[in-house]
Protein backbone atom coordinates (compact mmCIF):
# COMPACT_ATOMS: atom_id res chain seq x y z
CA UNK A 1 0.00 0.00 0.00
CA UNK A 2 1.44 3.42 -1.03
CA UNK A 3 1.61 6.46 1.18
CA UNK A 4 -1.58 8.56 0.90
CA UNK A 5 -1.37 12.22 1.95
CA UNK A 6 -3.75 15.14 2.23
CA UNK A 7 -1.25 17.12 0.28
CA UNK A 8 -1.68 15.05 -2.86
CA UNK A 9 -5.42 15.07 -2.53
CA UNK A 10 -5.46 18.84 -2.02
CA UNK A 11 -3.25 19.51 -5.05
CA UNK A 12 -5.44 17.42 -7.28
CA UNK A 13 -8.53 19.15 -6.00
CA UNK A 14 -6.97 22.58 -6.42
CA UNK A 15 -6.00 21.80 -10.01
CA UNK A 16 -9.51 20.72 -10.80
CA UNK A 17 -11.00 23.83 -9.24
CA UNK A 18 -8.54 26.03 -11.12
CA UNK A 19 -9.46 24.41 -14.38
CA UNK A 20 -13.16 24.87 -13.79
CA UNK A 21 -12.69 28.44 -12.62
CA UNK A 22 -10.65 29.29 -15.67
CA UNK A 23 -13.27 27.93 -17.95
CA UNK A 24 -16.00 29.79 -16.15
CA UNK A 25 -13.96 32.98 -16.12
CA UNK A 26 -13.21 32.82 -19.80
CA UNK A 27 -16.78 32.09 -20.57
CA UNK A 28 -17.82 35.12 -18.56
CA UNK A 29 -15.24 37.27 -20.16
CA UNK A 30 -13.22 37.65 -16.96
CA UNK A 31 -9.78 36.58 -15.71
CA UNK A 32 -8.94 33.47 -13.62
CA UNK A 33 -9.46 34.04 -9.85
CA UNK A 34 -6.14 32.51 -8.82
CA UNK A 35 -3.21 30.64 -10.26
CA UNK A 36 -2.05 27.12 -9.55
CA UNK A 37 0.80 28.25 -7.32
CA UNK A 38 -1.61 29.61 -4.67
CA UNK A 39 -3.45 26.33 -4.43
CA UNK A 40 -0.20 24.40 -4.15
CA UNK A 41 0.87 26.67 -1.31
CA UNK A 42 -2.42 26.12 0.51
CA UNK A 43 -2.16 22.39 0.02
CA UNK A 44 1.38 22.36 1.42
CA UNK A 45 0.09 23.52 4.83
CA UNK A 46 -2.48 20.71 5.28
CA UNK A 47 -2.07 17.86 7.86
CA UNK A 48 -1.31 14.28 6.81
CA UNK A 49 -4.38 12.03 6.92
CA UNK A 50 -2.56 8.68 7.05
CA UNK A 51 1.19 8.52 6.98
CA UNK A 52 2.00 5.00 8.34
CA UNK A 53 3.31 2.43 5.80
CA UNK A 54 1.52 -0.92 5.67
CA UNK A 55 4.50 -2.86 7.13
CA UNK A 56 4.76 -0.54 10.09
CA UNK A 57 1.02 -0.83 10.69
CA UNK A 58 1.51 -4.60 11.11
CA UNK A 59 4.40 -3.98 13.51
CA UNK A 60 2.24 -1.65 15.61
CA UNK A 61 -0.52 -4.23 15.75
CA UNK A 62 1.98 -6.92 16.77
CA UNK A 63 3.43 -4.65 19.47
CA UNK A 64 -0.07 -3.95 20.78
CA UNK A 65 -0.84 -7.67 21.01
CA UNK A 66 2.49 -8.28 22.75
CA UNK A 67 1.70 -5.59 25.29
CA UNK A 68 -1.70 -7.11 25.91
CA UNK A 69 -0.15 -10.55 26.37
CA UNK A 70 2.44 -9.13 28.77
CA UNK A 71 -0.27 -7.39 30.76
CA UNK A 72 -2.30 -10.58 30.96
CA UNK A 73 0.76 -12.58 31.99
CA UNK A 74 1.58 -10.01 34.70
CA UNK A 75 -2.00 -10.17 35.97
CA UNK A 76 -1.85 -13.96 35.99
CA UNK A 77 1.46 -13.91 37.86
CA UNK A 78 0.05 -11.48 40.43
CA UNK A 79 -3.04 -13.65 40.91
CA UNK A 80 -0.91 -16.78 41.25
CA UNK A 81 1.37 -15.04 43.77
CA UNK A 82 -1.62 -13.85 45.80
CA UNK A 83 -3.13 -17.33 45.73
CA UNK A 84 0.19 -18.87 46.83
CA UNK A 85 0.52 -16.36 49.69
CA UNK A 86 -3.03 -17.08 50.84
CA UNK A 87 -2.41 -20.83 50.68
CA UNK A 88 0.82 -20.37 52.67
CA UNK A 89 -1.02 -18.27 55.28
CA UNK A 90 -3.76 -20.88 55.65
CA UNK A 91 -1.21 -23.68 55.91
CA UNK A 92 0.80 -21.72 58.49
CA UNK A 93 -2.36 -21.24 60.55
CA UNK A 94 -3.12 -24.96 60.32
CA UNK A 95 0.45 -25.83 61.32
CA UNK A 96 0.32 -23.46 64.29
CA UNK A 97 -3.02 -24.94 65.39
CA UNK A 98 -1.64 -28.46 65.04
CA UNK A 99 1.47 -27.58 67.07
CA UNK A 100 -0.67 -25.98 69.77
CA UNK A 101 -2.93 -29.01 69.93
CA UNK A 102 0.07 -31.34 70.05
CA UNK A 103 1.56 -29.32 72.92
CA UNK A 104 -1.74 -29.38 74.80
CA UNK A 105 -2.08 -33.12 74.21
CA UNK A 106 1.45 -33.69 75.48
CA UNK A 107 0.81 -31.63 78.62
CA UNK A 108 -2.45 -33.47 79.25
CA UNK A 109 -0.75 -36.84 78.73
CA UNK A 110 1.99 -35.86 81.18
CA UNK A 111 -0.60 -34.70 83.69
CA UNK A 112 -2.52 -37.95 83.42
CA UNK A 113 0.69 -39.97 83.70
CA UNK A 114 1.70 -38.03 86.81
CA UNK A 115 -1.78 -38.48 88.28
CA UNK A 116 -1.68 -42.21 87.58
CA UNK A 117 1.77 -42.46 89.12
CA UNK A 118 0.62 -40.63 92.23
CA UNK A 119 -2.48 -42.81 92.54
CA UNK A 120 -0.38 -45.96 92.20
CA UNK A 121 2.00 -44.67 94.86
CA UNK A 122 -0.92 -43.93 97.16
CA UNK A 123 -2.37 -47.38 96.60
CA UNK A 124 1.00 -48.96 97.25
CA UNK A 125 1.39 -46.87 100.37
CA UNK A 126 -2.07 -47.82 101.65
CA UNK A 127 -1.57 -51.48 100.84
CA UNK A 128 1.59 -51.51 102.92
CA UNK A 129 -0.02 -50.05 106.04
CA UNK A 130 -0.97 -52.24 108.93
CA UNK A 131 -4.37 -52.53 110.51
CA UNK A 132 -4.84 -51.75 114.20
CA UNK A 133 -5.68 -55.34 114.94
CA UNK A 134 -2.25 -56.48 113.75
CA UNK A 135 -0.57 -54.95 116.80
CA UNK A 136 -0.37 -56.95 119.99
CA UNK A 137 -1.97 -55.23 122.95
CA UNK A 138 0.34 -53.89 125.67
CA UNK A 139 -0.20 -52.50 129.12
CA UNK A 140 1.41 -49.21 128.17
CA UNK A 141 3.17 -47.53 125.24
CA UNK A 142 6.02 -45.03 124.97
CA UNK A 143 5.80 -42.06 122.62
CA UNK A 144 8.34 -43.72 120.32
CA UNK A 145 6.23 -46.88 120.20
CA UNK A 146 3.07 -44.95 119.43
CA UNK A 147 4.83 -43.02 116.66
CA UNK A 148 6.21 -46.27 115.22
CA UNK A 149 2.69 -47.69 115.13
CA UNK A 150 1.42 -44.57 113.38
CA UNK A 151 4.15 -44.80 110.74
CA UNK A 152 3.00 -48.30 109.93
CA UNK A 153 -0.69 -47.38 109.78
CA UNK A 154 -0.68 -43.95 108.13
CA UNK A 155 0.19 -43.68 104.39
CA UNK A 156 3.73 -42.36 104.01
CA UNK A 157 2.70 -39.25 102.07
CA UNK A 158 0.19 -38.33 104.81
CA UNK A 159 2.19 -39.15 107.90
CA UNK A 160 3.75 -35.72 108.45
CA UNK A 161 0.35 -34.00 108.33
CA UNK A 162 -1.06 -36.60 110.72
CA UNK A 163 1.93 -36.15 113.03
CA UNK A 164 1.53 -32.35 113.01
CA UNK A 165 -2.05 -32.62 114.25
CA UNK A 166 -1.22 -35.18 116.95
CA UNK A 167 1.70 -33.06 118.15
CA UNK A 168 -0.59 -30.07 118.60
CA UNK A 169 -3.49 -32.02 120.11
CA UNK A 170 -1.78 -34.43 122.56
CA UNK A 171 1.99 -34.48 122.00
CA UNK A 172 1.56 -38.21 121.22
CA UNK A 173 0.07 -39.04 124.64
CA UNK A 174 -2.64 -41.62 123.96
CA UNK A 175 -4.10 -41.05 127.47
CA UNK A 176 -4.20 -37.26 127.19
CA UNK A 177 -7.42 -35.79 128.63
CA UNK A 178 -8.76 -32.25 128.41
CA UNK A 179 -10.26 -31.57 131.84
CA UNK A 180 -12.51 -28.78 130.64
CA UNK A 181 -13.97 -30.37 127.49
CA UNK A 182 -13.44 -34.06 128.07
CA UNK A 183 -11.58 -34.51 124.78
CA UNK A 184 -9.47 -37.65 124.92
CA UNK A 185 -6.57 -39.48 123.31
CA UNK A 186 -4.04 -38.80 120.56
CA UNK A 187 -6.51 -36.88 118.39
CA UNK A 188 -8.43 -35.36 121.34
CA UNK A 189 -11.70 -36.85 120.17
CA UNK A 190 -14.74 -35.05 121.63
CA UNK A 191 -16.33 -36.84 123.24
CA UNK A 192 -13.69 -39.53 123.60
CA UNK A 193 -16.09 -42.45 123.43
CA UNK A 194 -16.83 -41.78 119.76
CA UNK A 195 -13.57 -43.67 119.12
CA UNK A 196 -15.37 -46.84 120.14
CA UNK A 197 -16.46 -47.10 116.50
CA UNK A 198 -12.86 -48.22 115.81
CA UNK A 199 -12.60 -50.62 118.76
CA UNK A 200 -13.72 -51.24 122.27
CA UNK A 201 -10.20 -50.68 123.58
CA UNK A 202 -10.11 -47.08 122.44
CA UNK A 203 -9.05 -45.80 125.87
CA UNK A 204 -5.94 -47.98 126.16
CA UNK A 205 -4.86 -48.90 122.63
CA UNK A 206 -3.14 -46.17 120.57
CA UNK A 207 -3.57 -48.30 117.42
CA UNK A 208 -7.35 -48.09 117.82
CA UNK A 209 -7.11 -44.33 118.29
CA UNK A 210 -4.91 -43.98 115.18
CA UNK A 211 -7.39 -46.07 113.19
CA UNK A 212 -10.25 -43.84 114.27
CA UNK A 213 -8.24 -40.66 113.62
CA UNK A 214 -7.44 -41.71 110.06
CA UNK A 215 -11.06 -42.56 109.36
CA UNK A 216 -12.23 -39.21 110.76
CA UNK A 217 -9.69 -37.14 108.78
CA UNK A 218 -10.36 -39.01 105.54
CA UNK A 219 -14.12 -38.78 105.94
CA UNK A 220 -14.30 -35.09 106.85
CA UNK A 221 -11.30 -33.55 105.08
CA UNK A 222 -10.33 -36.11 102.46
CA UNK A 223 -6.99 -36.91 104.05
CA UNK A 224 -4.76 -36.06 107.04
CA UNK A 225 -3.16 -33.32 104.95
CA UNK A 226 -6.61 -31.87 104.23
CA UNK A 227 -7.29 -31.92 107.97
CA UNK A 228 -3.92 -30.26 108.66
CA UNK A 229 -4.66 -27.46 106.19
CA UNK A 230 -7.95 -26.81 107.99
CA UNK A 231 -6.23 -26.96 111.38
CA UNK A 232 -3.67 -24.35 110.32
CA UNK A 233 -6.44 -21.97 109.30
CA UNK A 234 -8.65 -22.57 112.37
CA UNK A 235 -6.49 -24.09 115.15
CA UNK A 236 -8.92 -27.01 115.36
CA UNK A 237 -10.18 -29.71 113.05
Automatic annotation (TrEMBL):
Signal peptide: 1-22
Biased composition (Basic and acidic residues): 86-129
Keywords from the named record: Signal
InterPro entries: Lysozyme-like_dom_sf (IPR023346), Transglycosylase_SLT_dom_1 (IPR008258)
Region (Disordered): 86-131
Residue ranges constituting the Transglycosylase SLT domain according to the UniProt record: 161-226
Top-level division of the source organism's lineage: Bacteria
Protein name per the record: Transglycosylase SLT domain-containing protein
